[in-house]
Amino acid sequence: MHEMLKYKDCKINHSCRSLFIGKKHLFCAFKPVMKKTLRYLILGLFFLPTVAKAQFENFKDSVVQLYGVVMTADSLRGLPAVSILVKGTGRGTLTNSQGVFSIVVLKGDEIEFSCIGFKNKITKIPNNLEGNQYSIIQLMINDTAFLPAAIIKPRPTREQFERDFVNADIPDDDIEIARKNTDMATRRILMRSLPNDGRESVNMALAKNAQRYYYTGQTPPMNIFNPFAWGEFIRSWKRGDYKKK
């Protein structure tokens, strides 16, 4: 029995020794790789601030403060409210009342100038610009629109002109349409003919419930003795609300 345990212990010790030797060889195999990776990591951490600083300096050198004035090409008059857009970025600005503007752009950006009544203009910021400031005077050319020719012919006689002038059908503008829609008679007809919508029905039900709850436990007053109710009845009678439809 003792010999069997001894043999078993020897077998376990031999397995552990083999496993330890295998791990040792594996560690020895990966040791150069770990040293190389650690060396690159230290070098990367050492040069990372320098690279970031160089990128920041490069980006800082590409930023340009663009300012100038937008004027008409024929009279050299400052144009207000001209839209200035940096293409592809969605950034832009507007000129002031004298046509002066200022915006931050990058070297190589394309700037589009647009204004109602004038042709659009596109200006590119030079890539080899020295410094971080750039000023321009942008001239806008009138955009001429040619309308189809209109031929005006007189009426043969004065009587025909008067007849056509009186019978001319001129459509109502928005103000006249709004005035007709808000007329008291039109509103009264619509109130009698159209059904109540959801909000009106709910408000009416809530008002009736509130009145019923207000007089809970007591006799509600009779409107026959209410002078305000009599006044509303007389006004409704004069308006013709009780006439047969």
Report what the structure shows.
The protein contains six helices and seven strands. The chain has a four-stranded antiparallel sheet with strand order 3-2-5-6, with no helix packed on it. The chain has a three-stranded mixed sheet with strand order 4-1-7. Among the domains are: about 60-140, Sandwich (Immunoglobulin-like), CATH 2.60.40.1120; about 160-240, no CATH class. With about 240 residues, it is of the alpha+beta class. The N and C termini lie far apart (about 120 Å). A hairpin with a 4-residue loop joins β2 and β3 (about 90-95). The protein is about 50% helix and about 15% strand. The longest helix is centred in the first third of the chain and has 61 residues, at about 1-60.
Secondary-structure map:
Layout: H1 2-62, E1 63-72, E2 83-86, E3 91-94, E4 100-106, E5 110-114, E6 121-124, E7 133-140, H2 158-166, H3 174-181, H4 184-193, H5 198-214, H6 227-239
Parallel strand pairs: 1-7
Antiparallel strand pairs: 1-4, 2-3, 2-5, 5-6
